[in-house]
Amino acid sequence: MKKVKLTTHYFFLFSFWSSIALSFFLLLSVGVFYTLLPSEKELKGCLKGKMFDVEICPQSENYMSLKNIAPSFRQVIVVSEDGNFWTHSGFDFFELKNSIQTNLKKGTFARGGSTITQQLAKNLFLSQDKNLLRKLKEAFITVYLEKHLTKNEILEKYLNIIQYGDKLFGIKNASFFYFKKHPSQLLPEESAFLASLLPNPVKYSQSFRSGRLSKYMYNRINILLNRLNRLHDLSENDYLAANQRSQYMFGNLAQGASPKDQNFWDTLYEYVDDELSLDENAAESPKDAPRRTDLDIESEPDDDGSSESNAYDSRGNGDDGDNDRTNNDADIDSNGNSNSNSNSNSNSNSNIDGTKDLVEP
Asked: How far apart are CA 309 and CA 202, in angstroms?
């Protein structure tokens, strides 16, 4: 009996000191890494992302400043990816808590909680390895970016480095590839399409290759348009027109779309063509920052009905299920239908499209 107690005692001592040593090693590694980060001046200059080997340089012709990007795209990216972007300090603990609850409930990593700043940190400075040390580095880099860059600078770099398709990086390349136009000329539904690509751009760009929106992508786009409308970033007439245009985005009627009387929409087009205008500064103002909801969104099924994604999405999230996008859209089931009953919140009222009322901070 005494021998058993002695063995147990040594085991706990070994575990304790091993934990201390491991913690010290991790903190030391992160500390050394932190000292190797670029200076503030270097951070605002030309950088080469480690995740996908993509270079972003403000002096490059492919680099787009925020003022040269359509307000609708700036707005929809924040609404889709990080609703509290303008108000948090790099981490959204409310969203992280909801992600943990959702993942525990579903028994899988169905929802991530990374902010735009965290996603930028991964794309710029981290590899595709998935381990505890990488997570600690990500946290340190996130704090560093928030300290040395403004929110506008973070968003601008993010839009210029993330992936929008197979070997397609940066908003300028994406805008010309999909719509043959400058990013400043993107229409609201086109902006929503590009934002909808981000969880898995190679997979979700299939709608473009097939010449028609899938039911999943069509519903997803219009959920985002609806959210812009409810946040007053898109007028009712602009919202209706964008919704109608999205039905034939790539030439053919989207799956699940129900075209209205064409004479009515032709009349509306004439009005909207003259009136469509969005506030240039709306997406940059903290007071207009949309609040994210606690709703999830599931993957679009593959042709065989499964929902498997590629190894890494546009923000460097891996196939181990650590899908670090905010996932604040409404649930869309395996048939592409929006589900208004997911993750109900007693403090929010569900809308007819499955989203929840968003409250400005």
From this structure: 9
| Alpha-carbon gap, residue 136 to 140, rounded angstroms | 6
Please tell me which residue, 127 or 75, carries the higher pLDDT value.
75
pLDDT per position as a tens digit, 187-245? 999 999 999 999 899 999 999 999 999 999 999 999 999 999 999 999 999 999 999 99
Distance of alpha carbon 136 from alpha carbon 25, whole angstroms? 12
On the 0-12 / 13-18 / 19+ scale of CB atoms within 10 A, 258 is exposed
Angle, nearest 10°, between helix axes 188-197 and 215-230?
Answer: 120
Say if residue 144's pLDDT is above 80: yes
Which of 129-138, 304-313, 317-326: highest mean pLDDT? 129-138
**Domain residue ranges of the chain, discontinuous segments joined by +:** 48-339
- CA–CA separation, 226 and 214 (whole Å): 18
Angle between helices 215-230 and 236-247 (to 10 degrees): 170
Fold entry, domain 48-339: Penicillin binding protein transpeptidase fold (1.10.3810)
Closest by Cα among 284, 176, 191 to 245: 191
Q: Are 185 and 70 in contact (CB under 8 A)?
A: yes
Q: How far apart are CA 26 and CA 115, in angstroms?
A: 23
